[in-house]
Amino acid sequence: MTQLFLEQALNGLQFGLMLFLLAAGxxxxxxxxxxxxxxxxxxxxxxxxxxxxxxxxxxxFWIGLGCGVGxxxxxxxxxxxxxxxxxxxxxxxxxxxATFALILIANEAVRMIWGAQPVMLNPPDALSGPVEIxxxxxxxxxxxxxxxxxxxxxxxYLLVAKSRIGMWxxxxxxxxxxxxxxxINVRRLFTAVFAFGAGLCALAGGLLGPLLAVQVxxxxxxxxxxxxxxxxxxxxxxxxxLVGSLIVGTVDTLGRALLxxxxxxxxxxxxxxxxxxxxxxxxxxxxxxxxxxxxxxxxFPARA
Length: 304
Description:
By secondary structure, this protein is mainly alpha-helical. Helix content is 76%, strand content 3%. It has eleven helices and two strands. It has helices at residues 2-33, 40-58, 61-87, 92-114, 140-162, 164-174, 176-181, 186-208, 218-233, 238-263, 269-294, and strands at 130-133, 136-139. It has a two-stranded antiparallel sheet with strand order 1-2. Strand 1 (130-133) and strand 2 (136-139) form a beta hairpin. It is globular, with a radius of gyration of 20 Å. The model has no long low-confidence stretch (mean pLDDT 85).
């Protein structure tokens, strides 16, 4: 039982850190630009497909990851210039409708280019086996994802909390008009943040591609979790996105793994296997409701 708990705790940490890569860009776009981007999950899907295509063409996972992330950031840049600049001054209903249309367009475009069947994305050969940790074996690739997630989280923290660009970003999240009055070109800042968020989406999609199916519509489910993360952590807060991602990733993973085992003490095995994952999914939303009851602005709301 202890080994199972440790293994699932590592899985939860890995999932939470990958969720942070997705939620970080979304919370910046939502917090700074006040723009509800439902197509953020589509950038995650497009990034995963581009990483898979580039990895296959270059016969290297890491080259494919770099090319896919760069290409998705360029797509995000073009989307911001062509479409999202027109949406910033619109109401949230217009933003929801426009970005929902983008989801449908992206799904159909991906289906036309790569087909309806899932695309294979294999991890590097050197990371395909397990390694021994504290007496049990754990997949080496998942450990690399944890290290990668921690490194990117640290770099994001330094970029947002310690750099001049991060100061502009935090100022824009707190008071856009004052930031513009101080001479900051908020329009360019928006474009850079949007492209950066798209690149983070592709990074998450490419890294999770070998663990999950790279398929049409893969971004919709994870987008809901990303919104839960930024609501729990506080809109516009990188620190809140990190804490919220770890909470959601750990609760979801541990709940799906351990609840069926606990329920078997009182229910038949088949019923416990069905109810466990369902209750684990509900736990995330109950947790979000409880946090919002005590902290309506989230755990770490963005401040000046």
